[in-house]
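User: Second chain of the day. Same drill as before.
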Amino acid sequence: MNASLIWKNKMVFEAHNREHMSLMDATSDHGGTDQGPTPKELVLNAMMGCTAIDVVSMLTKMRQPIDQFSMDIEAEKNLDHPIHFKKVLLKFKINGNILPEKAEKAVESSLTKYCGVNYMISKVATIYYELILNNQTIKVGEAHFVDPIK
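Assistant: Same format as last time:
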């Protein structure tokens, strides 16, 4: 896995991953022009994307028909340098004819074993989650990754 980055102007950077391009920028209070997400915002996106791919893939393999899937994320940062996330809440919103125990298994499997992005972030931040199935909260929990035996 590799990537590259090019400085465009001011605090705008263009990142390249395979044939994909994305912009990053700083907020205006940090000298940026707000042309793209900040690096920390991209980490939040990566946290959601990683676990979303896991959950949708597992539910599909379990033959659980998904009508809608979305996520929200909230992060709390520490105040001292290096500033990093100290607490993160992932909200899974799933609609469909899905058995609650299957949805719980998919989310818990992602947040205990499979999602490498959240595993990395869990080393510095506590990750909580809320699972909302068909507009009803069915599970609130904390990610507990099992470290692989080295």
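The radius of gyration is 17 Å.

User: Great, on to the next one.
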